[in-house]
Specification:
The complex is a heterodimer.
Chain A: E1 4-10, E2 13-19, H1 25-32, E3 51-54, E4 57-60, E5 73-75, H2 88-95, H3 105-118, H4 124-130, H5 142-157
Parallel strand pairs in A: 1-5
Antiparallel strand pairs in A: 1-2, 3-4, 3-5
Helix pairs in contact in A: 2-5
Chain B: E1 5-7, H1 12-21, E2 26-29, H2 35-40, E3 48-51, E4 61-64, E5 67-71, H3 76-80, H4 83-88, H5 90-97, H6 102-105, H7 110-115, H8 123-129, E6 133-138, E7 141-146, E8 151-153, E9 156-157, E10 164-170, E11 177-184, E12 195-203, E13 209-217, E14 224-225, H9 227-233, H10 240-253, H11 264-287
Classes of the chains: A alpha+beta, B alpha+beta.
The complex binds flavin-adenine dinucleotide (FAD) and FE2/S2 (inorganic) cluster (FES) (2 copies).
Chain lengths: ~160, ~290
């Protein structure tokens, strides 16, 4: 069978690509479109390093087929900063050293952004549960959680 | 790798025609949180994948006969945002919400959880306790079947060739009725149930239990409807003595496996403990309904 011709929107830009059925959205982002910010940690939905949003829903792009992107709107880590201006979460993660090796970071940032859009004033417990599908082998999580809470507090006082 | 065909039909009839004409390796794709894992692991090699998320009636929740009709492709995140379902059936919604992480919730469906037919599927005991049925459409027409009739052994369902689950019917909750679902897992999040218990019970005006359904997950090849456990509650005020009997009946019904998450002895004991705790929550909800 010929490859699928998919028309979609990624980070607000119209994008077209060709893919096979078995290629995941993560494969397409990384291998076909050169958007390598989303990482593959497990390819089985457990680690969250591949997190993106599809039509505003947080998902693991390793568990979405590339063809499913047809007609959808996808947000990846590459769309998070506004040009040179980092998103407040990105800025805080740097300032508070909420990352070490950085492999989990794109997924954590996308997941945290999606949380704050839905719930701008989360409790620590809510942040921990929301991010339970984002594994980090380096930081021990505390700095990630406190950075997210600090950004939420900044947003409230702004 | 063989090429896999992909279709995204816009109607149930088109989907059923594709399913009925496909070979034995045709697979329905709902949220893909089981199917894609199995595909990547080489456990399934589909010839055709049919994405059902383009079918409107499978994506919506509507009120029907005092209860709800829930589309087979509605995700956990979507149902969790439905306040009417959540307030009538908190146990069903919580059980569904226990599946995986936020990311998995964005995709997973009730039909996928049921049709994957894992003994530990979290939403299944709660759906059965609530008396849910499913609307199944196939080449020979439409039928409505109880949720407990679908999974027949691990990984196997009673659906015949060309059939799929289009939606679920969730009846209205009784006045003075309450439901709950709890599971035991070794971690606090993102793990597979060692034991899961779904309970739905109804009280009369004097607080006496008039009806109950007690369903155990993860302790047998399929979810178990335990009549002895329900009978332990019916006719009582769900006091300590009744709870004691409920726990004993739940443990007696177990036929679990031994694995790294729990031994047979542990699963059997914990089934009784979790049954009591679940009943206590259902009772509280029934009293305040
Ligand atoms: C990281 C992770 C964590 C998880 N945690 C849990 C957990 O805590 N508890 C739990 O119970 N499960 C868990 N799961 C398993 C899985 O998420 C659930 O079983 C989920 O509900 C499957 O739904 P789906 O829509 O993604 O199914 P899919 O993968 O799309 O489908 C599953 C199966 O059902 C069939 N199917 C789907 N829809 C229909 C239909 N309408 N009619 C007929 N057949 C159909 C498919 O062909 C396939 O065989 C987890 C999975 C992952 C990856
Ligand atoms: S790579 Fe997708 S969840 Fe780990
Ligand atoms: S910073 Fe290394 S995995 Fe999170």
């Amino acid at each position: 069978m010929a490859k699928h011709h998919v028309t979609t929107t990624i980070n607000g830009e119209p994008v077209e690509f060709l893919c096979e059925t078995q290629q995941t959205l993560l494969d397409v982002l990384r291998d076909e479109l050169g958007l390598t910010g989303s990482k593959e940690g497990c390819a089985s939905g457990d680690c969250g390093a591949c997190s993106v949003t599809v039509d505003g829903r947080l998902v693991c792009s390793c568990l979405v087929l590339g063809v499913e992107a047809e007609g959808q709107s996808i947000e990846t880590i590459e769309g998070m900063a506004d040009g040179e201006k980092l998103h407040p979460l990105q800025q805080r993660f740097l300032e508070e050293a909420a990352l070490q090796c950085g492999i989990c970071t794109p997924g954590v940032l996308i997941a945290a952004k999606s949380l704050l859009e839905k719930n701008p004033d989360p409790t620590e417990t809510e942040v921990r549960y929301w991010l339970a599908g984002n594994l980090c082998r380096c930081t021990g999580y505390d700095k990630i959680i406190s950075s997210v809470l600090d950004v939420a507090a900044d947003m409230k006082s702004a | 790798m063989n090429t896999i065909q992909f279709e995204k039909p816009g109607t149930v009839d088109e989907a059923v025609a594709l399913l009925a004409n496909g070979d034995a390796n045709t697979r329905v794709l709902a949220g893909g949180t089981d199917l894609l894992v199995q595909l990547r692991a080489g456990m399934v090699t589909p010839s055709l994948i049919i994405d059902i998320k383009g079918i409107d009636e499978m994506r919506t929740v509507t009120e029907e006969n005092g209860g709800f009709r829930i589309g087979g492709a509605v995700s956990g995140a979507e149902l969790n945002e439905n306040d009417a379902v959540k307030s009538a059936w908190p146990g069903v919604v919580e059980a569904f919400d226990l599946i995986g992480s936020t990311q998995i919730q964005g995709r997973c469906t009730l039909a996928g959880n049921l049709c994957n037919a894992s003994p530990a599927a979290d939403s299944v005991p709660a759906m059965i306790a609530a008396g849910m049925t499913c609307k199944i459409v196939g080449p020979n027409g439409t039928r409505e079947a109880p949720v407990e009739s679908i999974a027949i052994s691990p990984g196997k369902t009673s659906l015949t060739k060309g059939e799929m689950i289009v939606s679920f019917f969730l009846p209205g909750q009784n006045a003075n009725g309450g439901d709950a679902y709890l599971r035991f897992i070794p971690r606090t999040e993102m793990d597979i149930a060692v034991v899961g218990v779904g309970i739905n019970l109804t009280l009369d005006d004097n607080g006496v239990c008039t009806a109950a359904r007690v369903v155990l997950g993860a302790v047998a090849p399929t979810a178990l409807v335990v009549a002895d456990a329900a009978n332990a509650l019916i006719g009582t005020k769900v006091d300590d003595a009744a709870m004691e009997k409920l726990a004993a009946a739940a443990s007696a019904a177990c036929n679990p496996i031994d694995d790294k998450r729990g031994t047979i002895e542990f699963r059997t004991k914990v089934a009784g403990v979790i049954a009591r705790r679940t009943a206590a929550i259902a009772l509280d909800r029934a009293r305040s309904n």
